[in-house]
Amino acid sequence: MHVACLESLDNLVSLKTSWDALSGNNPFRGSLWQHTWAQHFCGSHDPTRSLRVLLVSSEKQQPTSDISEVVAILPCYEHRTFARGRVLRLIGDGEVCSDHLGLLCKEHQSEEASDAIVEYLMSREDWDCLDFTYFDENDEASRNLTNALADHGCFLERSPGPNCWSIELPATWDEFLAMQSKSHRKHIRRLERSAAKLGSVEWCLCEGADTFEQAWQQLVDLHQQRRLSLGEPGCFASESWARFHQEIAQQMLAAGQLQLSHLKLQGKPAAAEYQFTSSTATYAYQGGIDPNRLDEQPGRLSLSRTIQYAIGQGHSRYDLMRGDEPYKPHWRAEPNATVRIQATPPRTVARWRYAAFDGMRRAGRIVKKATGLLG
């Protein structure tokens, strides 16, 4: 197998067909999400970051977009810092919080592709460590990559990441209600009746560019109002986060993968859901609720409506994504473990740099603990 390192966005655009074929039908692993992330967070937007996408092909030549030639893609970028040097990270990480990242690979070829990638990395001295957040623990391709790093002498540090929660959806809403506890099932039905008594209850889905701007602003307003009421800045307070999402949301809408919905009570927006879809799943990424209407539980009602819609679309999974919020198991979601992988190559300078960074990290923890004990 042949490994090439792609360092320009133009190279990525030419690989769209191959990239999407390897993405596993997951929007966060697809070319649209990852290429847009690279445009917003690498290169001119941040000169400390540059693309380092590793491409494994079956031919010993520069691969084209022909899927028969592309075996695997490891979507990376290099982040240069004083403390850690040249760090390889996964495209989509950081404040955007993309879930389910990892090695994209053809089925049954991940062991061979992983060995090829690691052999390529071992032949180069232009990286000091690798820091991948987060792999799904049950992702075979990413697990094989981790094993290959260890087999080639890298020092590995594994640490648990946040759980990703998902609901396995049945074929009908009645079957879904039957999955719930008796008390929760009664609560869902009572919530629907209470909302109906208030008057108009309307669930609206943004289905075209002509309604996007208004729907997006309602999401921003409801999200920020709720987070500020909790003493938090809210995601849209970050200009880089807000810019990325306003663009990717419109691109996902054009691609038929955006699910931007609003729940209106008595004609006024009370909750919003910012979600993405594949042909088999709904991904509940972000949302917002009116903090002045918490007694009416618009968040629960909105979640109920989006689950009903997902079932109606024939989806088999409702992905609530990372975070151990207590409402998730209440809806019969199950946790899926993730892991952070840090790897240091068997080179003297890289090991020294890791030891220095690890020492500073440990010292910081001691100081923090001592400060806490002192009040």
Characterization of the model:
It contains twelve helices and 17 strands. By secondary structure, it is an alpha+beta fold. The protein has helices spanning 9-13, 16-22, 31-41, 110-122, 140-151, 173-179, 182-197, 209-229, 239-254, 298-312, 327-330, 348-373; strands at 2-6, 49-51, 53-57, 70-74, 76-81, 85-90, 104-105, 129-136, 155-160, 164-168, 201-205, 258-265, 268-277, 281-289, 317-322, 334-336, 338-344.
| Overall number of domains | 2
The main pleated sheet reads as:
7 strands, mixed
**What fraction of the residues are assigned to beta strands by DSSP?**
25-35%
Count of DSSP-assigned helices:
12
**Element pattern in H and E:** EHHHEEEEEEHEHEEHHEHHEEEHEHEEH
What characteristic shape results from the CA principal axes?
A: globular
Structural class: alpha+beta
Distance between the termini: 58 Å
Query: How do the strands line up in the largest sheet?
Result: 11-12-13-14-15-10-16
CATH topology of the largest domain: Aminopeptidase
Oligomer: single chain
Runs in which pLDDT lies below 50 for 5 or more consecutive residues are none
How many strand units? Answer: 17
* Average pLDDT figure: 93
CATH superfamily of the largest domain: Gcn5-related N-acetyltransferase (GNAT)
**Using only CA atoms, what is the Rg?**
23 Å
> Which percent bin holds the helix content?
40-55%
CATH class of the largest domain: Alpha Beta
InterPro entries: Acyl_CoA_acyltransferase (IPR016181), BioF2-like_GNAT_dom (IPR038740)
Organism: Adhaeretor mobilis
Protein name: BioF2-like acetyltransferase domain-containing protein
Domain BioF2-like acetyltransferase: 182-328
